[in-house]
Amino acid sequence: MIDLDKVKNTIEKHQLIDLGDKIVVAVSGGPDSVCLLHILHKLINEYNIKLYVAHLNHNFRGIEAQQDAQYVNKLCDELNVMCFIKSINVPKYAKEHGLSLEEAGRVLRYLFFEEISENVGAQKIAVAHNLNDQAETLLMRLIRGTGIQGLTAIHHRRHNIIRPLLDITRRDIEDYCRFHLLQPRLDHTNLQPIYHRNKIRLQLIPALEEYNPNIVETLAKTAEILKVDSDYLDLQAEDIYKILIKKEKANRLTLPIQGINKLHPSLLIRLMRLVAENLVGKREVLEYKHIQILLHLISKDITGKSIQLPMGITVYTNYEKLIFTTETEEKVSFSYPLIRDSYTNISEINGRIRYYIINRKDDFQFPKEAFKKAFDWDIIKGGLLVRNRKEGDRFWPLGMKGTKKLKDYFIDCKIDRHKRDRIPLICDDEEIIWVVGHRISDLYKITKDTTRILIIEFEQLNNV
Amino acid sequence: MIDLDKVKNTIEKHQLIDLGDKIVVAVSGGPDSVCLLHILHKLINEYNIKLYVAHLNHNFRGIEAQQDAQYVNKLCDELNVMCFIKSINVPKYAKEHGLSLEEAGRVLRYLFFEEISENVGAQKIAVAHNLNDQAETLLMRLIRGTGIQGLTAIHHRRHNIIRPLLDITRRDIEDYCRFHLLQPRLDHTNLQPIYHRNKIRLQLIPALEEYNPNIVETLAKTAEILKVDSDYLDLQAEDIYKILIKKEKANRLTLPIQGINKLHPSLLIRLMRLVAENLVGKREVLEYKHIQILLHLISKDITGKSIQLPMGITVYTNYEKLIFTTETEEKVSFSYPLIRDSYTNISEINGRIRYYIINRKDDFQFPKEAFKKAFDWDIIKGGLLVRNRKEGDRFWPLGMKGTKKLKDYFIDCKIDRHKRDRIPLICDDEEIIWVVGHRISDLYKITKDTTRILIIEFEQLNNV
């Protein structure tokens, strides 16, 4: 039987209820939720709380579901508690949203509870998970594979959701219902298509009781102990997140590699998960194996190397930084012939370019702008064009002793990988004559023999 | 079948072997250890290692045990590895030391391995635990009840003990033995009285495989992930231990309560366990429930309240400090009549005391020493004695408005609880006239009417 003090102890230890709270109680009509309502009802004066009941008719079972609703309604009448009942087509919603029946049921339930909660101005939503649910969840997670966070199983409180019966065994709840002649309906969950959990409950737990008769309590205790550690690790990671992570754009976070290298892997995986949560809303998408891949990427120290993580997250190193982004890298590619004395638009990078030719005069002065350069016109072979880089491009930077791969030149200039495709290259029929914004080719520079001068000007229309 | 690269990957990831190591390989003759020896033998040149085999005859199975030893000896001959075989009576040792056969076997095995290791100057001892052992151990700990540390199960390396096969399944090991025609002996562990583990292996793991066919790998992976977190938490706790813990004596550690109050419970339990390890050599003696009791003690902020923890550890608060000690508090109790002009020894506290009487003169000066005081001799009723405190003692401290409980006086003076019994009290037939080292009684002070002066001197013979 349930000792009321035990429930109160849970409530106080985990600060589930504040004096004066309005609480929406989720009641299916099964033993757990009926017991929860009955117990909270006993505590109304002590905590000065006001209760509201929310019952969702899942429409899985036709007439029986109607009877569940009637039962809950009657119970609320007896207890003088306001009752909200909503009927909803779970299979339809599941189909429409591509969810399993179980997932759809959960989504709709919590949407409904939140809706009632908002309507009545409630601070809390009480749900009836018990100690056996706790143990079963830990086992399910363990069997599926998980880390410490998964093993912490169900929490006594998460935001406004509270679970006052989480320390009470199912057996005690059933005894309580019998003692108080509550006659709850058959537990809905037994009839919901959560076959896996039922198997754990009906087969695995009894098998484990042969090894330890108190296996349910033992597992629940383990979940509780692990939660303390898990909470601490999360707090540590959140502190470090605030210090290290910089949000450059909505979908682009950076963190300094130097900071990462000092971090213990335990924190690093959590940090990465917080990044994932920020980018795609789900921290679970990053698993331990992804972290190992990331560590490998960092240790290699190769700028520009990127890896693809789940949910469209791309990570790449960029000199001292590790960059996480969900930007879809639209491949930029352009190539336009230039027309003398006219502007040529490069819409891909929102810029334009023109060239003209002047005769050399004694008072010729080199243009001082980064985006305006002078070349020896008589060396140009064929027509001029502007394009972005291609595989194998080479280039002879002004002042150097020979050509080098354009890629290496970009690396030397520490140009972000994702910017490289957007840099215009001015070419004649044979060579790159100018990497716009950077150097011109040594081969085309003005010499004492130059008589006709080619001037090329690039103009950025606005910052992209 | 075992991919040799997989074992090498384990060796390198966990830094199990350094180039040039001498390694003692524990070989029972079963598939695991035979495979381990065979694989390490293949790696001799690559790691420049030297192998020695240690085989312990447990004497559980008579003739079969002899055959095991012969088999191991023959295998070592073939591989040209030096083999040490020792026969020992495990049941006898178990009986003599009050251990289970399993415990005794483990103690003796590792003693033997360490002995060989020392003799040959080996850096490492290789043992043959595999991935299935890992999964089984995690389950055993989970069923028994544990925290994160227990769930990290078996470690790839602990001090000089290394486990190169810990990432390899039992099935792969057996395949390897068949492929290399090694014909290992029946695995000893199946015949050792470790019934519980065999049941886990033969019944529980197959049952869990119905839920997840890769349950062994999944559980081993969980152990590995949890180890990362557990290691981090341990490191954090060790750092804090160094900062907060003060070792006052070999069996007495203190930590500031202010420091504790700021600590997250996750670190606090680890800190307490490190204290326990320092005091009694075993950190596991402190469980989560003990920490909760400790937190309660601290929150109450009662100086002098003590609690008893396992293995004779006493904890009590003392003003700003929490004191952990294994000191057995020998109850001090003494009472001696004083003799005029003679020393009375108080052996219990290693002090002596005497008194004498002088006539008042105009140039009388009050003694300035803490342990020498003057009283009005004519107020003394009956004889003088020195004793330590008893329940109910009251006292009128000089300058105060009336009597108070001696206990309260001690508390006001912030006198350590364990020191209170050792403070001499000088009494006449009715009253405490002096709390030695502290105040005299207001009732016995020298007044303008005093004619004869009682001088009492206490002398500490050496510091206790």
Automatic annotation (TrEMBL), chains A, B:
InterPro entries: Lysidine-tRNA-synth_C (IPR012796), Phe-tRNA_synthase-like_B3/B4 (IPR020825), Rossmann-like_a/b/a_fold (IPR014729), TilS/TtcA_N (IPR011063), tRNA_Ile_lys_synt (IPR012094), tRNA_Ile_lys_synt_N (IPR012795). Residues 384-456 form the Lysidine-tRNA(Ile) synthetase C-terminal domain. One of its GO terms (cellular component) is cytoplasm. It holds the Pfam family ATP_bind_3. It is an enzyme of class 6 (ligase). It catalyses: cytidine(34) in tRNA(Ile2) + L-lysine + ATP = lysidine(34) in tRNA(Ile2) + AMP + diphosphate + H(+). It comes from the Bacteria. GO terms for molecular function: ATP binding; tRNA(Ile)-lysidine synthase activity. GO terms for biological process: tRNA modification. Its EC number is 6.3.4.19. Keywords: ATP-binding, Cytoplasm, Ligase, Nucleotide-binding, tRNA processing. ATP binds at S28, G29, G30, P31, D32, S33. Its main location: cytoplasm. It is found in: Cytoplasm. Gene3D superfamilies: 1.20.59.20, HUPs, Phenylalanyl-trna Synthetase, Chain B, domain 3. Ligates lysine onto the cytidine present at position 34 of the AUA codon-specific tRNA(Ile) that contains the anticodon CAU, in an ATP-dependent manner. Cytidine is converted to lysidine, thus changing the amino acid specificity of the tRNA from methionine to isoleucine. Belongs to the tRNA(Ile)-lysidine synthase family. This is tRNA(Ile)-lysidine synthase. It comes from Alkaliphilus pronyensis. The gene is tilS.
